[in-house]
Amino acid sequence: MAFHAELADRIRFLIGTGPEVTEKEMFGGMAFLIGGNMVISASSQGGALVRVDPAESAVLAETTTATVAIMRGRPMPGWLRVSLGDLDSDEQLGEWVSRAVSYVRSLPAKR
Predict the structure, then answer these.
(1) Which sign, positive or negative, has the C-alpha torsion 90, 95, 96, 97?
(2) What residues make up the domain containing 10?
(3) Which of 8, 49, 70, 79 has the greatest CB tally within 10 Å of its CB?
(4) Is 111 among the domain residues?
């Protein structure tokens, strides 16, 4: 399954541009990175794969419609899946993008 191009366009608009912002096709989706760290991806599995503080993963999974991402059969704290239906409005998507950008900006840039 290909990633959702309209969702990628909406993410691109919200993240904005800058020398530290890049895009890369990863895992069949379109990933958006800041300083080499993945922020969010328009996922090939539908919806978005969102990076968050791993310490907040469980609480966010309990208090929102997001679920902890499963990769290679293992739960991955720090990565949440948000369905496309839960990203219908710009406000919904904006909240996830803001949360992910804030967390990634707290990380050291990759070389």
Answers:
(1) positive
(2) 5-105
(3) 49
(4) no
The vertex-86 CA angle with 82 and 41, nearest 5°, equals 40
Q: Is residue 46 part of a domain?
A: yes
pLDDT in tens, 69-84: 998 999 999 999 999 9
- Nearest Cα to 38, choosing from 50, 28, 55? 50
Task: Sort 108 into a burial class: Cβ within 10 Å, 0-12 / 13-18 / 19+.
Answer: exposed
Residue 22's DSSP bridge partners are 33
Query: Beta partners for 50?
Result: 40, 80
Instruction: Please give the tally of structural domains in the chain.
Output: 1
- Report whether 7 contacts 13 (CB < 8 A): no
